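Sharing a chain and its predicted structure for anyone who wants a worked example. Both blocks are below, sequence first, C-alpha cells second.
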Amino acid sequence: MQLEQKHITALDTAETLILHSDFCPYLELKSLLPNAAPDARAQFRSLFTNYYGMNVGGLTEAFKDRFFAILFTRHATGHGQPDLPEILNELSLIPRKKGDCAVPFSFVSKLSAILCEKSPIYDRHVLNFFSQKAPLPATSKAERIAWYVGFLKQVAIEYTAWAQDVRIITILDRLKTRDPKLAQCDNIRLLDFLVWKVGNRKLL
C-alpha cells in the first residue's frame, strides 16, 4: 500500500490523541505474561479481557478458558508467533452464548500479538486503513482463514516498510517519548496503536 499524504496526516494526528490508557494496559500485560503464578495469570486474564473487549460478542467462559490456555501454553513453550490457522480452527468450534460459532479473527490476532510483537493486530480499523474488505461470511472457512493469514503478513510487511519512512519515523519517535517502555516496543506494535486511533477517531 502506498502511503498518501492523507494517511501521514491521519497518523500524525492520531499520535497527538493517544492517551496513556490506550497503551499502558498493553505494557502491563507484557510485564505480567512471564509470571506463571496463579494470581498473575488471573490478573493477566482479567486485564486482557477488559482491554480487548472480550466481554462482548457473546463469548462463553469455555471459549475464554481455552483461549487463555492456548496463550499461556504457547508462551511457556516459547514458540513465538503461533500457528494462526490451527488456533482459529480450534476456537471456531466453540459455540458462542447464542449457540452459533464464529471464527475469532480479531481476538486470535491479539493472542498472537501479545506473544510476538512483529505480529500485527487485525480489526475493522486496520481493514479500513488499508481500504480492504474481509471475505463474505458465505466464503468457506478455509478460504477466509487463508485470506486473513495473507492479509496479516502483508500488514506486517507494510508496517515494517513504513517505519523506515522519515515521515513515519518522526511520528514514532514522538510516541516513544510517552513512556520508556514504548521505546522498547516493536514498530509494528506502535503502528497498531496509531492505526487503531485513526480508526477510533475517524481521522480518514
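Comments welcome. The chain has one domain: 5-200.
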